[in-house]
């Protein structure tokens, strides 16, 4: 029912949903006929619905390397996340993980659901990994080595300071960005200057958004919570992180949340800079779509107490709309400006008394300014248009066509029904005569 009312409230999202459904079916139907690659792609489809579509749209010389890179990182993440593995076993396992990449027999019993399936069938991933270009293999191994070491460091200590928070996110996501840039260049798809600092910001923007959004899921994790919110920030608003679950502490919890949103939004301009330097359209879409989803999620989470009671995320239809429309830097600027405007509106309204409202305003205006420069439009004009969802109109013309067809069909059916009733009335009046 929710889906139906969503569709009626946002008819412009119906066509993108249909397109995404078709793309997902196409991606699932593609088989290579070899058990290793078929396993890798079916697992990719199972663990990341929308992102797997974008990976499969990458040029052939890059697609397989990114698919394996993604699964390798998921495997490392599964070991890190499994709170049933004792620390003295987990730490050496993370540090050694990169050596397992060439071991055709290695597998590990851990994780849950699809991730457990990944770990139990890991030899199939290894078999596919060993078929990649040697340069791609080297990049993936190097990143897995640095990431495993970094994760191990944070198994033994908590994220206390903002500096720790940036370092932890660098290990688990920033390094992914650095590795991806190497893969793009090795595949000869990108030639421009893509410095480590910008690639790192791309990863931090995604990972910090996930950490904010996943508060409730992470704190309720069994057998023990795994938290990444830095104490230097949350310590200003509560005694322990669990306190934020209590609705009595909702006001302090939301202030903490907004402080974290301010922290992550500081990466947005650098992400835009990175994206603006990409040349290949498929690489661009692969990088840009997750960034747009992240700022969309942040706009939903900002000043929203529901982060502490449930899952806050973008509607499926909205995700689909951005999946199909992010095909130029212009549309990225429009999407970023739109979500920045939603946050500015909250800053001026319900969040106006937040201790960080002014700082957030400054950062959001910087984002708007960057978008304005890219679009050759005054930020004030962007702000005036931003809330109307500028992208929505340009990107969803086919959906408007679809809703017109629905309207015409509905009118025809109504006319037929009315005609039927009138004809019946006329016939019965003839009988009486
Ligand atoms: C990613 C990133 C990713 C993609 C493109 C460019 C990047 C540059 C720097 C760093 C990361 C980059 O994107 C995915 C997106 C994703 O998985 N989305 C999920 C949705 C979700 O909520 O999980 C989906 O199902 O669609 C990402 O989040 N990560 C990731 C992992 C591996 C690779 Cl190769 C690329 C995870 C992380 C931790 C943020 C790096």
From TrEMBL:
The EC class name is transferase
Enzyme Commission code(s) on record: 2.5.1.21
Entries under CDD domains matching the protein: Trans_IPPS_HH (cd00683)
Please give the PROSITE patterns that the UniProt record associates with this protein. Answer: SQUALEN_PHYTOEN_SYN_2 (PS01045)
UniProt keyword Transmembrane, yes or no = yes
The entry's family comment says: Belongs to the phytoene/squalene synthase family.
What PANTHER family does this protein map onto? FARNESYL-DIPHOSPHATE FARNESYLTRANSFERASE, SQUALENE SYNTHASE
Designated name of the protein = squalene synthase
Whose protein is this, by species? Symbiochloris irregularis
């Amino acid at each position: 029912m929710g889906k139906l009312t969503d569709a009626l409230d946002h008819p412009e999202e119906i066509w993108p949903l249909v397109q995404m459904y078709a793309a997902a079916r196409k991606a699932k139907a593609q088989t290579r006929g070899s058990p290793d690659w078929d396993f890798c792609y079916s697992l990719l489809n199972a663990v990341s619905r929308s992102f797997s579509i974008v990976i499969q749209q990458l040029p052939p010389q890059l697609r397989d390397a990114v698919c394996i890179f993604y699964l390798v990182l998921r495997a490392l993440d599964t070991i890190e996340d499994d709170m049933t593995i004792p620390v003295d076993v987990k730490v050496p396992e993370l540090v050694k993980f990169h050596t397992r990449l060439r071991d055709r027999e290695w597998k590990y019993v851990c994780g849950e659901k699809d991730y457990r399936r990944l770990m139990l069938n890991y030899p199939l991933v290894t078999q596919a990994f060993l078929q990649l270009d040697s340069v791609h293999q080297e990049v993936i191994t190097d990143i897995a080595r640095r990431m495993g070491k970094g994760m191990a460091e944070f198994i033994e200590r908590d994220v206390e300071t903002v500096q720790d928070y940036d370092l932890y996110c660098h290990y688990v996501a920033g390094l992914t960005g650095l590795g991806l840039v190497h893969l793009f260049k090795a595949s000869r798809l990108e030639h421009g200057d893509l410095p480590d600092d910008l690639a790192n910001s791309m990863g931090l923007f995604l990972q910090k958004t996930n950490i904010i959004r996943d508060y409730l899921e992470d704190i309720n994790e069994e057998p023990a919570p795994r938290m990444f919110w830095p104490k230097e920030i949350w310590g200003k608003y509560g005694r322990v992180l669990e306190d934020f679950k209590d609705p009595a502490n909702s006001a302090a919890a939301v202030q903490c949340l907004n402080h974290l949103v301010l922290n992550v939004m500081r990466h947005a301009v650098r992400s835009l800079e990175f994206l603006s330097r990409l040349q290949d359209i498929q690489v661009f879409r692969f990088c840009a779509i997750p960034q747009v989803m992240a700022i969309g999620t942040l706009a939903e989470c900002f000043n929203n107490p529901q982060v502490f009671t449930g899952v806050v995320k973008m509607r499926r239809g909205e995700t689909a709309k951005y999946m199909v429309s992010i095909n130029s830097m212009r549309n990225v600027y429009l999407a970023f400006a739109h979500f920045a405007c939603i946050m500015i509106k909250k800053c001026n309204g319900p969040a106006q008394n937040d201790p960080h409202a002014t700082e957030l305003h400054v950062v959001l205006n910087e984002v708007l300014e960057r978008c304005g420069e890219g679009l050759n439009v005054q930020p004030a004009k962007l702000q005036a248009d931003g809330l109307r969802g500028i992208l929505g109109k340009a990107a969803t013309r086919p959906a408007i066509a679809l809703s017109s067809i629905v309207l015409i069909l509905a009118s025809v059916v109504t006319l037929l029904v009315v005609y039927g009733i009138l004809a019946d009335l006329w016939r019965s009046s003839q009988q009486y005569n």
